Records
---
Amino acid sequence: MGTYFPLEKVKNALNKDAEFELVARFWTVDIRFKVGDEFYFMVIRDGVVEDFYQGTTGLDAYTINVGGALEVWDKMMELPPQPFYHDWFAASFHHEFELGGDLQSAYAYYYALKRIHACMAQSVNTTKFAA
């Protein structure tokens, strides 16, 4: 499988997103995204996405994990998404999807997580339709 996300595009979109900048300020976190059998890691330091990469050594640190079946991710990347695919929390209750790890941090910065989802979907769709 190739790269599901346009990694640099997602990273740049988040770092240029004024809403993400506001809601993620002071946030330092490592997030693991599981898309089917593939792993992606996002490193955020003081509200800035420093790295977003594919692959794992099996020892990668993460604070929050988000993931599920490829079919669920595909529906979550649709614009606009269908009900219960619009949000990671909703998807974790209604579909084969997980939001876990340090939930105290996840809920404190939930709007930042929502902006990550929005920027991912936008980046995936602009890449898909540009091809």
---
Amino acid sequence: MIAPPDPDLVTLLARVADALDRIAGPRPPAPDFECADAFVWQATTGTLSPVARVNRVEIALLRGIDRLRDQLAENTLRFARGLPANNALLWGARGMGKSSLVKAVHGAVNGGAERPPTPLKLVEIHREDIETLPDLMGLLRAEPHRFVVFCDDLSFDGDDASYKSLKAVLEGGIEGRPENVLFYATSNRRHLLQRDMAENERGTAINPGEAVEEKVSLSDRFGLWLGFHKCSQDEYLEMVFGYADRYGLADDRDAVRAGALEWATTRGSRSGRTAWQFIQDLAGRRGRRLDPEAQLLAR
């Protein structure tokens, strides 16, 4: 015969439960995905902040990366239509438009002639919050919308073990990546970790090969690798004149060309970011305003 519960114990447990509820505070409200097409994940509160106006460049102004642009656009459009698609890692030279391409493709998919039945949502997660990625995935899993979760400048240093959360979410966990979520990341590193991290692992591990393989295998979770390399002078000038023509600044093409080359020389680099910075300077000197929607913040 089971003894009845102790009334004092039941009362005590109820008081403890109430106290825990007060400490935890109210549950965050359910996100309203109809109010915007882009959101930023706030890890501390477990909420999504809508972005009313995404800072992105028109996809037609992204020059010199045509093949990469088409690959990412096709992959994203397939996913938005409910077809199989791959997680994507955009890696390589700085300033060549990696993060700009992600945002531009998202805008092009939602605004194009072949737009999906429902708008594709873009969710940005900051690098320092990557450990909370499983929480974000759990929040999105039950939603009817489709999401591209985007992390800019993703890499891992020192003893940072948060990469394990990413590995589990992408492919390795028991739940895996939700069917309605795709993960895009940009990085200057192809394997997302510093070279000395791999060398340290090789020198201290009992089985060096396995230790290094565990970290390098993270990039293997991305089915689509897009490599961005330093551009040639011709490609750089193509970027410059793409902007100059767009904003009516190319009336004296020889002067624009000479100024753009001098600008790149003084900075020691040619890239999409350098081209846009030159255009900003040129427009400012001419007293011209530029549409903020087209600002290229290449990473």
---
Amino acid sequence: MIKRFIHQFASPKTYLFQVNKVYRYIFYISLIIYSFSLTWGLLFTPEDFVQGNSYRIIYLHVPASFISQSLYAIMAIASITYLIWRVKLAAYFIIAIAPIGAMTTFIALISGSIWGIPTWGTWWQWDARITSTLILFIMYLGLISLHNSFSNYEKADKLLSWLVIVGFVNIPIIKKSVDWWSTLHQSASITLTDKPSIDPSMLYPLIGCIIGFFGLIICLVILSSKYQIFKRERKKSWVKEYV
């Protein structure tokens, strides 16, 4: 029953039909939210007592860091779905998300380095959080290169799925690295279990930036997944309806 449900609602044709209906709404709403929140955070929030104005990079760094890890978690779920139920759309999602995950991880690393110069006095430190995030970036690049090296898509999809699942061990390491080891990187300001340690005047635009940025990344994932579908399903007659 579960298998039937997944295959019914996860076919490439059905997926394209659904995302084409909602794409523009997601894009414009997310763009408005992120633009408003970013402007709010950069121009209208108070200066931090310790870090001064340099903290404002959190409105780019935190969303990018959060989403880079979230995208890998989505890839892991897609990998499990593909290996268990052989849903080919899940395999398309893995390779569609990988370059976007690499991009967001790169943004997180660069913005973190810029933040580190005035905060730590150095742009790079082999800190547990930074190093594990760098490993995530390398993993994304490795997955992309590996998939592109195969001419047989089915073999590439299977191998990629297993590697994504194995590599998922790095996500909790990134998340808990500031708690497990002595690290320069500050602990999370927003958690599900504790009250946020950041002032509400800075917190609200940050939450807006996370939501808006996440929506824009979803739009990129939709475009990337559509490209993978057109590439892999190009011989199917129904593809002509969407091209």
